[in-house]
Structures are given as C-alpha cells and as structure tokens.
Amino acid sequence: MTRNSDSVLSRRKFLIASGATGLAGLAGCTENNTGDSGGDSGGDSEGTDSSGDGSNELSGTIDIAGSSTVFPLATAMGERFQSEHSEVNINLQSTGSGGGFANYFCTGQTDFNNASRPIKSEEQDQCESNDVTPVELKVATDALTVVVNNDNEFIGEGLTVDQLQTIFSAESAPTTWSEINSEWPDEEIEIYGPTDASGTYDYFIEAIIGEEGPGHRQDYSATEQDRTIIQGVQGSEYAIGYLGFAYYSESTDSVQAVPIENDAGEFVEPSLDTALSGEYNPLSRPLFTYPARESLAEDHVAEFARYWMENSTSREIVADEVGYVPLGEDEQQEMLDTLNAAIEEAN
C-alpha cells in the first residue's frame, strides 16, 4: 500500500495514540473490553478456505494481548491483514508483556502474546499447565529510550550506565539530581516509567540494574500508558523516564532523548541506525510475538502469523510507519522456518 509522507505520519500517530488506550478496535474488527475476553481463545473461531481451491477466503477471530511496545507494530500488521481478509476480526489489547502472558495467553484466552523480552520460565510453566505451547518469533529490534525534559541542559553529553543504575536502583534511590552529580541542580528527580507487568521494565532491569541486583526502585510514577510517560516528562524540567523508541519518535518535539554511554565509552543517541549497528548498547533489544501452537491449527491464525513474518523485513511498515528496526532476510527466514514447523505440528 502506497502512502504519502503526511498520511504515514498521521497513521503512526494514530497507532501510538491507540496504544495508549490499551485496546485497539482495528478497522473491520470487533472490540473487546480489556478485562473481558469471553473465556475463549480466538483459535476456537472457525478459519476456513471456503473456495476449496486454496484462495484462502479466511474468517474468524484472532485475540492478541501483551506488550505496549509491540502494540503499534501489531496494529499496523493487523490493519493490513484485515484489508485483505475482511472476514477476519482482530482484537488487540495492550496489557504489558507479563500481564499478557499471565492473564490472557497462558490461560488460553488469546492466540498471540506480544512481548518486549523473551518469555520467562515460570510463564512457560504456566502455559504448559494449560496446554498452551508458545512459539517464539522475533518481529523487530527496538532502541529502549531514556527521555528528559526539553529544558534539561545539565545532563550534557548524556548518561553513563552507572548513572542510570544509580537513578533507578532501589538501593541508591536518590531524591535529587545533585546526589548523582554535585554539579547538577539540587532539585527533586521526578521519575516516570512502565509498570512491573511490562517487558520494558524487565529489560531495563536486565540491561541496567542487573537481574541479581537490588531491583528497580518503586517510588516512581508507573504506568502501562507510554504516552503518560511522555506527558509526565514534558511537564517537569527535572523529570526522567524510559520507554520504547516508537513512542519517543512520535514525541521528539515534546521531550529529548538522552545519549547513553556504550561499551566503547561513546555516548550514543537512540535511532534505527544505531540500534541496527549495535552502537546503541546496552539498550537495543529484540521484540517478539508468541502465537500459541494450538491456535495455529486454525487457517486464519496461521495465515496472519505468516503475513506478519513475511512483512517483518518491510522498512515501510516496521521502520518508516512504526519506528523499529526490521528483521534482516536471514532472521526472517529463520522465523518463517520456525513458524511453518509449528503450523505443521499443529495440524
């Protein structure tokens, strides 16, 4: 689908705004309330090839929960898929990676769970206990972005990993900027970030605080709505927060991204190019979707999963419209091989 630059920008802003609500009613699909998925997986809906000649006249419902970070990408893929298959309804919720696994996917209520970090062993166990088999598919690469107010001039060239750890660690938990650097203002730090149900929260702990460390401080403004993080930081000169790059990329006039010192001692700004090259470390990360193998026995679910993987290398969709790094062709083929094997096992 060809789009001019204005319509692409408009669409990207719609995706981000929709992500903030926690639920997408995509064009041509039915909406569910976040707390009520009806107790049945979309995999129970009938997916058919009614023509009998392989032309794939698909119908049925697909239920998806999980990561707010992956939400805009899932929305873009879902909208396009529905434009080709108008009888397929996609119900998409932004619940956080962990919230999606625990409350929807591993209980058998959804067909996919989006995640901004790999599934945990305890989530695997929960899924197994409910006869749900998750299939891990990488869909893009993100540059987790630390943001501060546009009037913040004291941070200068950026923050080190040690400084980030000091700000967000439960052990240190400084209350003023001057506690981090004596040359910085003696002003209270206002902190915004995702909740502990978020894969972004989990990844930040892994990359910055350390999984064996003291843990993430809890005296901060936590939300699953990424736009709320932007608004909080925008509203205070002494605020700081973190979120996925796609949400920052729609708010570059509202907040500023902080360069982070990488393992080579260079301060690097988050971008698609620096995430792809590996320069933006340690905050570049893979993004995933997890279809349930059992749901892949339904044609409409399997074909949507294939469609997503087949378009995972699209710069137009993944990078230009949503704001993430697309897969390379080798990664794409690996994911397609994994998916096709799972579909074959499901059938």
Report on the architecture of this protein.
With 347 residues, the chain is an alpha/beta fold. It has twelve helices and 13 strands. The strands form three sheets. It has a six-stranded mixed beta sheet with strand order 1-3-2-4-13-5. Strand 11 and strand 12 form a beta hairpin. Helix 1 packs across helix 2 (71-84), helix 2 packs across helix 11 and helix 10 (299-310) packs antiparallel against helix 12 (329-346). The two termini are 32 Å apart.
Order of helices and strands: HEEHEHEHEEHEHEHEHEEEHEHHH
Q: Provide the helix percentage.
A: 25-40%
Chain-averaged pLDDT: 87
Please give the radius of gyration in angstroms. Answer: 20 Å
Task: Give the N-to-C terminal Cα separation.
Answer: 32 Å
3D shape: elongated
Give unreliable regions as ranges: 1-55
Largest sheet: 6 strands, mixed
Share in β-strands: 15-25%
Strand order of the largest sheet: 1-3-2-4-13-5
> With helices defined by DSSP (H or I, 4 residues minimum), what is the helix count?
12
Care to count the β-strands? 13
**Secondary-structure class:** alpha/beta
